[in-house]
Write a structure and sequence with these properties.
Shape: globular
Helix content: 25-40%
Structural class: alpha/beta
Strand content: 15-25%
Distance between the termini: 30 Å
Number of helices: 18
Largest sheet: 13 strands, parallel
């Protein structure tokens, strides 16, 4: 992390104190209050690097501030380790672990190498490097509150999982984010690599070490699903896995059923391994508190089979993404049948062949209650999209992205959005990563008499939608 990167920070309480003209006024602040101000200054950022920089800056202002900061354990609870792991990073970590005393820890470890050549064995951060890190942080596992680990390759993840398998208790741990940052393993037919390390690991003592776990994100990372300890969660994210390492349907249903209070669920790529011959004959996964669902699919048939498992009556925000369009741009999925399925499910009817009798008396996907909808890179025919949007009568926010890659008939529905024939409650519309040709095509279908006299297609589109009471954000594709 460069010095320039760390210096670009928003105003903080520290800056206001340092800018005070009367140093006596600052010195008159009681140490307890100064300590509280320091805590706010270092915990007011979502960026771990900023939190680390603020703590370091505070402790180097003057001797008095240094004494107060070193005695304030909460300033030193964000532990940051990045690639390459120089000795000074390890020494800093030792110091911060000591200074934080008994406080809960946020561990942020990013060992990705921007110059990596995509060869697994060539990466400069391997299992031995991860071992050094684990030996440093493992004695403090009783204080882990949030753990984030991002890698390019599997070896460091495997080392982390292996070491945590010996842990008997992690009483403070609330959130785990593990990411092997390679979405291509989710491609259809792709196998897990390296195959010799495919065997799942029972992390955190087979799940028995968890006491407070509430949020889990596993990207390209699989565990022993039968002994995962994933229960009582509020948020769960599974994404970019090879299909062969995903849980069986029985294991997946067990995990979801053990999280009845789940509020947010993301499945991007493959979910459980589904055998259509043993699919439940009715919707078996009822999540009455789930309000946010993000679903990215590779295969439409699989997507419909998976969605047929759920009953999400409290759903407020829905995100649908064609992941196959980014993994294989030449062969995107046609999402028409998926949209048709969700439209039919809205009315409690089901077009899934595995369900031989009615699934439920009310809609398992209440589109009419949605407040936010995101469609990313979808390809669909106009009638399917129109019927789908006709059900979203209370929709307040709509995001459309990847329009340059997809064949979503937005031009055909633009006029109906303006006339409130579709999404009559819409107030915010965002076109994300739209290229100039897409914006021009959208503007071309507008009634020119209702927009300002301008040759700029983007301006015309924004003005027409604003006249209809819809605020618009257009994020153009910089590569176009």
């Amino acid at each position: 992390m460069s010095y320039d990167r760390l210096c670009i920070l928003p105003p903080s309480p520290v800056r206001y104190l340092r800018g005070t003209t009367s140093t006596s006024a600052v010195n008159a602040i009681p140490d307890e209050l100064l300590s509280a101000i320091f805590h706010v200054a270092t915990h007011d950022f979502h960026d771990c690097y900023d939190a680390m920089f603020q703590a370091t800056t505070i402790s180097h202002v003057c001797q008095h501030w240094r004494n107060v900061s070193l005695s304030t354990a909460s300033l030193w609870t964000v532990i940051v380790l990045t690639f390459p792991t120089h000795r000074n990073q390890l020494f800093r970590t030792i110091d911060w672990l000591a200074r934080s005393r008994s406080r809960p820890l946020h561990l942020y470890m990013d060992f990705r190498d921007p110059a990596w050549n995509w060869e697994e064995a060539s990466h400069c951060f391997g299992w031995k490097n991860m071992e050094n890190v684990m030996r440093l942080i493992l004695p403090h596992v009783h204080r882990w509150q949030k753990v984030e680990l991002l890698t390019d390759t599997w070896a460091p993840i495997f080392t982390f999982l292996s070491y945590t398998s010996r842990i008997k208790s992690a009483p403070m741990l609330q959130e785990v984010i593990l990411s092997r940052c390679n979405a291509f393993f989710a491609a259809k037919g792709e196998l897990f690599r390296p195959s010799a390390m495919k065997q799942p690991v029972s992390w955190f003592g087979g799940g028995s070490a968890f006491h407070s776990l509430r949020r889990v994100s596993l990207a390209g990372v699989h565990v022993n699903w039968a002994n995962s300890g994933l229960s009582g969660l509020l948020e769960l994210e599974l994404k970019y896995h090879a299909s062969e390492v995903m849980p069986t349907l029985h294991e997946f249903c067990g995990i979801i059923s053990a999280c009845p209070e789940l509020e947010r669920l993301s499945i991007l790529g493959w979910g459980p391994q589904i055998d259509v011959d043993v699919m439940p004959k009715q919707r078996s996964l009822h999540l009455p508190h789930l309000r946010h669902f993000a679903f990215g699919f590779i295969d439409v048939d699989y997507a419909i089979d998976l969605l047929s498992l759920f009953h999400l009556t409290a759903l407020e925000t829905l995100s649908l993404e064609d992941i196959s369009s980014s993994l294989d741009p030449l062969h995107p999925c046609d999402a028409s049948r998926l949209l048709e399925y969700l439209t039919a499910a809205q009315h409690g009817s089901c077009i899934t062949s595995s369900h031989t009798f009615p699934c439920t008396t009310c809609g398992p996907y209440p589109l009419s209650l949605l407040s936010s909808l995101e469609l990313h890179g979808l390809t669909s025919c106009e009638p399917s999209l129109r019927c789908f949007l006709q059900e979203t009568t209370t929709l307040d926010r709509l995001v459309l992205s990847g329009l340059d890659k997809a064949t979503l008939p937005v031009q055909e529905i633009a006029l109906d959005l303006i006339a409130a024939a579709l999404c009559p409650s819409l107030r915010d519309l965002k076109f994300k990563d739209a290229d100039a040709s897409t914006i021009a095509a959208l503007s071309a279908c507008l009634p020119v008499a209702d927009v300002a006299d301008s040759d700029d297609a983007t301006y015309q589109l924004i003005q027409a939608l604003r006249i209809a009471g819809i605020e618009v954000i257009i994020s153009e594709n910089v590569s176009s």
